[in-house]
Amino acid sequence: MTTDVTDTGVGTIRSGFLGGGFMAQAHTRAARAAGAELFALASSSLQRAEGSAAELGVERATTLDGLLAGDSDVVHICTPNATHAPFTLAVLDAGKHVICEKPLATTLVDAEELAAAASECGVVAAVPFVYRYHPMVREARARIQAGELGALLTVDCGYLQDWMLLPEDDDWRATSAEGGPSRAFADIGSHVCDLLEFVAGERIVRLTARTRMVYSERGGHKVSNEDAVSLLVELESGAIGTVLISQMAAGRKNALTLELHGALSSMRFDQQRPEELWIGRRGESSHLFRDPDNAHPGVSRFSRLPVGHAQGYQDAFNSFVADAYAAIRGEDPDGLPTFDDGLRAARLTDAVLRAARDERWIDVRELQN
Question: What does the pLDDT read at residue 10?
């Protein structure tokens, strides 16, 4: 069974949305799938809000003040990175639950403030690390928890895209004013590191990094953050590994891969082939396909479609929002990414930037509160 907020009998959640761009599309689809009322949407102007609300099927357009003062139970923040911190604080001050796009904040200090404020307010505060919600990711995690991998030895991970490959490719994320000091790592590297720690069940404790900015200008303005990052990492158990992140890998559209090598077996998940999990052993290797009837306990609820009907990114997003709404109703869904996880990503981002700048190893534990 999937988590469905409409099954709880507590009433319909009213969802508000701040921002009406690409990510708002994923958020509104997921909220609708979870049975919520798409209550209100605010954007950079009332005119833009009216257009986005009509396009996305949200009941009413409003201003930021109207959204904060209105009757929404939860606000989804889908705005440029640098605005996340002030908008999220405003939502928390209004006493509303919040789902904030990642990165949670563009500085570690702001991320710490947001996590502390969410804890103090006692609201549900979630960050869409939605790749956790692919059924085969949960299957890999369950098998590792059951000891099938054995002691973790090495990891080989990556997240490759090509949407910034050409010198004329441009986006607001390439400027520090809107995107923040990190682009490739903060936007997509945070996803793969979150997935690594979530599936492996242990954290990165030390890392060193190199970053590369290929073009110093895009669209007539200076670029202020990186196009690619390479990491060497060490985990709590002593396992070592590599992580490669690039937004300039020709032909790679959204190639997030996670490969873990243990003393007993290896496992590999490829986000572009989300219905399967590769399992390698000394004498053989095999592909395990999504099948809720044969899944580990607790995994079958993430299968939202019958076997043979492929699930993908939006299905994972739907499951994430359903879990966030379940938490709003008082449940405690396993693996829901919260502001603490958003803070963790900000801490890793800070460590990556320090390591690249100083050309040294960084002990991530030294960046703890």
Answer: 44
Helix/strand number for the chain, H first, E second: 10, 17
Secondary-structure breakdown of the chain: helix, strand, coil percentages, each rounded to the nearest 5:
40, 25, 40
Give the amino acid at 343.
Answer: L
Predicted local distance difference test score (pLDDT) of residue 179:
87
Distances 28 to 59, 162, 176, 207, 320 between C-alpha atoms, Å? 11, 26, 28, 37, 12
Partners of 99 in beta bridges: 76, 126
Q: What is the pLDDT of residue 1?
A: 26
| Cα 25 to Cα 166: distance, rounded to the nearest angstrom | 26
DSSP, res 368: -
pLDDT (0 to 100) of residue 6: 34
pLDDT at 176: 81
Matching CATH topology for 5-130 and 131-308+337-358? no
Q: Which ranges of 275-338 does DSSP label H, i.e. alpha helix? A: 313-328
Quote the pTM value.
0.95
Query: What's the chain's length in residues?
Result: 369
Tokens of residue 134, six digits: 């692919």
CA 29 to chain centre: 17
Show the low-confidence residues of the chain (pLDDT under 50): 1-10
Class of residue 32 by CB neighbours under 10 A (exposed 0-12, middle 13-18, buried 19+): middle
Rounded distance between C-alpha atoms, residue 354 and residue 333, angstroms = 35
Domain-wise residue ranges, the chain: 5-130, 131-308+337-358
Given a contact cutoff of 8 angstroms between Cβ atoms, the answer to whether 235 and 203 are in contact is yes
Question: Do β-strands 266-270 and 276-280 pair in parallel, antiparallel, or remain unpaired?
Answer: antiparallel
Superfamily (CATH H level) for 131-308+337-358: Dihydrodipicolinate Reductase; domain 2 (3.30.360.10)
- Domain 5-130 adopts which CATH fold? Rossmann fold (3.40.50)
